[in-house]
Specification:
CATH class of the largest domain: Alpha Beta
Strand order of the largest sheet: 10-11-9-12-13-14
Structural class: alpha/beta
Distance between the termini: 31 Å
Helix content: 10-25%
Shape: rod-shaped
CATH architecture of the largest domain: 3-Layer(aba) Sandwich
CATH superfamily of the largest domain: P-loop containing nucleotide triphosphate hydrolases
Radius of gyration: 30 Å
Number of domains: 2
Largest sheet: 6 strands, mixed
Order of helices and strands: EEEEEEEEEHEEHEHEHEH
CATH topology of the largest domain: Rossmann fold
Number of strands: 14
């Protein structure tokens, strides 16, 4: 199973410009020959892969993309201007399908990949082109052809930026509901989430990231138990894991540290880089526990885990702590991108912070 974000858009290529019927008319040249120029080609619509994008959310606000029509030809054998192409930037991993024919037009995998999705119309021919020894004064021309029109389905095979990790009922679905527009099923029984839920978290107009709510990982998941490996492999593609811990378990005798170590053990069994993926600890359901009791449980948990990384306390119900978590995640991802693009400009000797 894959994380898929999809939108439907309409692309309209420009029509070709019409050819011109014109004759040369100058002083002392009363019988000038034909000089009608060709029209210009219509603009085409291209999709271009952009590594700076990670969601299709912007397409929900603009569904139609239209290229420019070619100009008509003119006298004096002047060719019409070609219509401007339209380039639509899409995230890496975008799959493009023609809805009407169900034809897979292509996938954009690498930065800079280009895919022609609507070809501009061919230009019309002016009457100059019809001149011959037997037709000295042609009065015919052709019109430009129509540009292609298509309705496309864009599917993004998303490599989610943030993966939510935790036992069933840890509050993963509640968190994604609070910070994004995703509406996963939320209830107080195990395995509410049977399929991955994907949410786009918008920090502001130009800043967003993808967060994935993964079904609860249980003991034996690495061997395929429960929902198994199919979801662990998606966790391995995320850039950061949030390990959610239920601080108000139904059974108060539960050892919270043991719950964490059981999941870590599954990550280690799965192998690869998953066990070494950076994790932040997120303590959930703060509103359901008295402050003193919460502090005691937190202190015991961190001590038993010997936890040295970032720790956040949140309540998805009231929203406490979620805004700061979202801001820190966005800054972490932005800083990570800078490190990948310009590693020599990032200092390694700075003291630790949630952004490191």
């Amino acid at each position: 199973m894959k994380f898929v974000d999809e939108v439907t858009i309409k692309v309209i290529a420009g029509d070709g410009g019409n050819g011109s019927v014109s004759f040369r008319r100058e002083k002392y040249i009363p019988r000038g020959g034909p000089d009608g120029g060709d029209g210009g080609d219509g603009g085409s619509v291209w999709l271009v892969a952009d590594s700076g994008l990670n969601t299709l959310v912007d397409f929900r606000h603009r569904r139609t993309h239209k290229a420019e029509r070619g100009e008509n030809g003119m006298g004096r054998q002047m060719t019409g201007h070609k219509g401007e192409d339209v380039e639509i930037r899409v995230p890496l991993g975008t799959r493009v399908t023609d809805i009407e024919t169900e034809e897979l037009l292509g996938e954009l995998i690498n930065p800079g990949d280009r895919l022609l999705v609507a070809k501009g119309g061919f230009h019309g021919i002016g009457n100059t082109r019809f001149k011959s020894s037997t037709n000295r004064a042609p009065r015919q021309s052709t019109n430009g052809t129509e540009g292609e029109r298509r309705e496309l389905k864009l599917e993004l095979i998303l490599l989610a930026d943030i993966g939510l990790l935790g036992l069933p009922n840890a509050g993963k679905s509640s968190l994604i509901t609070k910070v994004s527009s995703a509406k996963p099923k939320v209830a107080d029984y195990p395995f509410t989430t049977l399929y991955p839920n994907l949410g786009v978290v918008r920090v502001d107009d130009n800043r967003s990231f993808v967060i994935a709510d993964i079904p609860g990982v249980i003991e034996g998941a690495a061997e395929g138990a429960g929902l198994g490996i199919q979801f662990l492999k998606h966790l391995s593609r995320t850039r950061l894991l949030l390990h959610l811990v239920d601080m108000a378990p139904m059974d108060e005798s539960v050892d919270l540290a043991d719950d964490v170590t059981r999941i870590v053990a599954e990550l280690e069994k799965y192998g690869g880089e998953l066990a070494d993926r950076k994790r932040w600890l997120v303590l959930t359901k703060k509103d359901l526990v008295l402050n003193d009791e919460f502090a005691q449980r937190k202190q015991h948990l961190l001590k038993m885990l010997d936890w040295q990384g970032p720790v956040y306390e949140i309540s998805s119900m009231s929203g406490e702590g979620t805004q700061q978590l979202v801001y820190d995640l966005m800054e972490y991802l932005e800083k990570l991108k800078i490190r990948e693009e310009m590693p020599e400009e990032v200092e390694d000797d700075k003291p630790w912070s949630p952004l490191d």
